[in-house]
# Entry
Amino acid sequence: MKKLSILFLISFACFYSLKAQLNCNSVINQNFTHYPINGSPYIVAYRDTLKCDIKTPEGNTVVTWAMEESSLLIRGEFDYAYILSPTAPWKNAEIIKTYDNLSSTRRFNCHGYAWLRVEQGIDRWIGYDPTYDGIYDPEKAYMKDGSYTKVSQHVYPGKVYWGGTGEDHSAITTSHPDTVISKWNEGPLAKHYWSYNPFMGSSKLEYYIRTPDISGPSKFCSWATYSIDNFPQGASVSWSAPGLSLQTSGNTATVTANTSGTYTISATISLNGNTIPLSKQILVPGYPLIDFLSSNNLDYNGDCDYYDVLRNFDNSQYWGSLTVSTGAGVNLQWSKFSCSAGFEWDYGNYLNNLSTVNVYSKKTGYIVLECAATNGCGITSNKNYYFSAGPSPFFFLVYPNPANDSFTVELVANETDFLHIRTRTAEPSYTIQVRHELLGLVRSEESAEFVKHVSLSGLPAGMYYVHIIMNGKTIDKQVLWKK
# Structure
């Protein structure tokens, strides 16, 4: 019950001059008239403190009160009058001791016991008086914010709330379906038949359990195990994880991924005719992506990752900068792959998933820089960026992208480079390596053709990385295959 006035014959609370809502840590002075079993009534003064430091499991604030304790004499009289007396109205209830070998206490009431003390071991009164609390039924924060789920009948462990019109009481369930444990205002803590208490039965008993949740990583590299927190006793569960290999054992499930992507693992809990659906989204990272973000003083020359470096403002040298981005948790590292004499480069600090590289030269030439992106799973993808000051060196094209059942590798060169290749050998000689994002190397072919068709037949869909190795140098391309 809410107010501090006792429903039985011992004590009567007189609230003097109710005030507006108080601030956190405000202290109020309350005077109560106590009617002892023997002797004349007398006034008892208490100092109680409003607190705002308690949160529901979902993180919402609950208004509570830190209460000044009653004397041992008064607490003993409550125990006797409610339960221990041979003529007590609830003498068949099982009294539970709290402090000082007594049961009755002002430290917590029924809501404070059921929703807070049982879960966190903290003694507070919840539902002091709406004039002071600034809210009616503050205990309902636990029931309304998703911290607890309402079910149709008694579940152990669980909570019971007297939710009928004009009713206001909380208890915890026990292993016996008709027996609960509840605190009776500043009176005893007792184990009793649900309707055998000072607040009597209810026209609307509401049952709650702590809301179950799937526990486990939101991202994994190859496999992970998941379980259900707050799994109700006596419940059963069925699991599903489309696109993933799934092995289950009760309220735990282990999933294994064969390809990267975003997946959903789901669990359906069945409990006494109640169905509770749960789901959790999972990311399985593939090769990390390296994306173009911006450039300065560079001219994109029409092919992926090839840039012409322009002269700077005073025409004294070639200079340009390129900024790339990647996903969270991915590290970027630059290195020089090859260059002509006199071409230099540097790059700034990796910050906020961005990295900027600068290239510059006082004469014509080229530089090839490799950017390596490594994610938390240790998976690394590489991308080469080609910067040319003056005539461009030879390079490869890979198309179409996305691929069909095959893709084409084409060696492209300007006239000078083309003649240079022809002079050295009748046909160019290079190696094509095809790597799947998760399976690794799946094809390796030698070629002496300027145009080479590579089949993907028999391979799974996904992202492929094409490494073209020529004269000891490697050029990397990405190809997406959607079946």
